[in-house]
């Protein structure tokens, strides 16, 4: 296949580039070159801002792509030239959106036809992804632009550039207490990055999917408390959790924990049935692989304890006051 990737240097995009290297494809990657990456020899890497309309037009001149994977659009402004530039230039335009574009669920799991909008927690991020979706799906309805929308849930795995599982690896390995927002019983859904990459490739090779939206994630659900327990068993360390309410400290859930205190998971039945795809990596297997990679990594995400230390200092002071009052 002749494949174009817009983005391709961050977590999911970079893993997908490596995933495609194993197959025989003609691959072009366009991004701003903000991350230092050594691209495989069979991949053509071009540095350009996606919104430099004239430059992109020259880059894709004379080309027709079997599939374009858009890994990086985050709001409507990122899509302002997309339809015009790629109309008639690709058989399929796959946009990586997010399950954060759904509103608060009243029925779980969330299917693709559930209401979308500005979620109370994910706000601007999910809203920006929805702007992109709207532009692409309107173009499909009006001019037949070959849009396909993929909505992952929390993505994790080797190379994650968001401090999620690595947040827990770090604190549990150092014996730091884990501050959990609320009671820790919120249920979340994670998807391992290599499973997502395989789903994207299966979609690209298929003739189906144009004009559709799909949830793609893992098929296991876990509470925040259980996730911490699983990671601790992988790290092989004892751990301590403390339930707190971040709002009391004028903080958000993500200021003290890598996942929000919000039960939220989707159904991936539609994609699974249409493309005969199932996630291969269990949550425990994925976390084990990510942990081994983290242990052996020479470069780790910057670790910040400031917010946690504020809370812990306050809790410690309160305990001292209680002891003095006894």
Describe this structure in words.
This protein has 326 residues and is α/β, with parallel strands linked by helices. The protein contains 10 helices and 12 strands. The strands form 3 sheets. A 7-stranded parallel beta sheet has the order 3-2-1-4-5-6-10, sandwiched between helices. It has a 3-stranded mixed beta sheet with strand order 7-9-11. It has a two-stranded parallel sheet with strand order 8-12. α1 packs across α6, α5 packs across α7 and α7 crosses α9. The termini are far apart. The mean pLDDT is 94.
Rg over C-alpha atoms, rounded to the nearest angstrom: 21 Å
Q: Please report the distance between the alpha carbons of the first and last residues.
A: 74 Å
Low-confidence stretches: none
Q: Sketch the topology as an H/E string, one letter per element.
A: EHEEHEHEHEEHEEHEEHEHHH
Helicity, as a percent range: 25-40%
Name the shape in a single word.
globular
Give the biggest sheet: 7 strands, parallel
- Number of contiguous helices: 10
Key features of this structure:
alpha/beta, 326 residues, 10 helices, 7-stranded parallel β-sheet, globular, 3-stranded mixed β-sheet
Question: Would you kindly provide a brief summary of this structure?
Answer:
The protein is α/β, with parallel strands linked by helices and 326 residues long.
Question: What topology does this entry show?
Answer:
Blueprint: E1 2-6, H1 11-21, E2 26-31, E3 43-47, H2 53-59, E4 67-70, H3 82-86, E5 93-96, H4 123-143, E6 147-152, E7 154-156, H5 165-173, E8 178-181, E9 187-192, H6 193-205, E10 213-216, E11 221-223, H7 224-235, E12 241-244, H8 269-275, H9 283-296, H10 306-325
Parallel strand pairs: 1-2, 1-4, 2-3, 4-5, 5-6, 6-10, 7-9, 8-12
Antiparallel strand pairs: 9-11
Helix pairs in contact: 1-6, 5-7, 7-9
């Amino acid at each position: 296949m002749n494949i174009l990737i817009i983005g391709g240097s961050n977590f999911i995009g970079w893993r997908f580039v490596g995933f495609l290297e194993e197959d025989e494809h003609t691959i072009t990657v366009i991004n701003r070159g903000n991350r230092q990456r050594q691209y495989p020899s069979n991949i053509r890497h071009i540095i350009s801002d996606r919104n430099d309309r004239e430059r992109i037009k020259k880059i894709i001149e004379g080309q027709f792509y079997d599939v374009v994977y858009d890994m990086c659009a985050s709001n409507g402004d990122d899509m302002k030239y997309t339809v015009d530039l790629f109309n008639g230039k690709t058989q399929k335009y796959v946009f990586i959106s997010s399950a954060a574009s759904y509103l608060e669920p009243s029925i779980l799991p969330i299917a693709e036809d559930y209401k979308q909008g500005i979620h109370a927690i994910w706000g601007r991020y999910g809203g920006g992804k929805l702007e992109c979706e709207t532009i692409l799906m309107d173009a499909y309805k009006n001019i037949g632009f070959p849009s396909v929308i993929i909505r992952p849930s929390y993505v994790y795995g080797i190379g994650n550039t968001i401090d999620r599982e690595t947040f827990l690896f770090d604190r549990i390995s150092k014996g730091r207490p884990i501050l959990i927002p609320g009671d820790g019983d919120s249920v979340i859904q994670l998807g391992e990055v290599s499973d997502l990459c395989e789903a994207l490739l299966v979609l690209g090779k298929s003739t189906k999917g144009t004009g559709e939206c799909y949830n793609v994630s893992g098929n296991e659900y876990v509470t925040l408390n259980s996730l911490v327990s699983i990671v601790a068993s992988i790290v092989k360390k004892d751990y301590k959790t403390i339930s707190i309410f971040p709002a009391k400290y004028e903080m958000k859930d993500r200021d003290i924990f890598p996942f929000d205190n919000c039960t939220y998971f989707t159904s991936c039945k539609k994609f699974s049935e249409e493309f005969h795809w199932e996630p291969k990596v269990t949550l425990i297997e994925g976390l084990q692989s990510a942990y081994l990679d983290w242990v052996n990594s020479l470069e780790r995400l910057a670790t910040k304890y400031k917010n946690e230390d504020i809370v812990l200092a306050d809790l410690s002071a309160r305990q001292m006051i209680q002891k003095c009052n006894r």
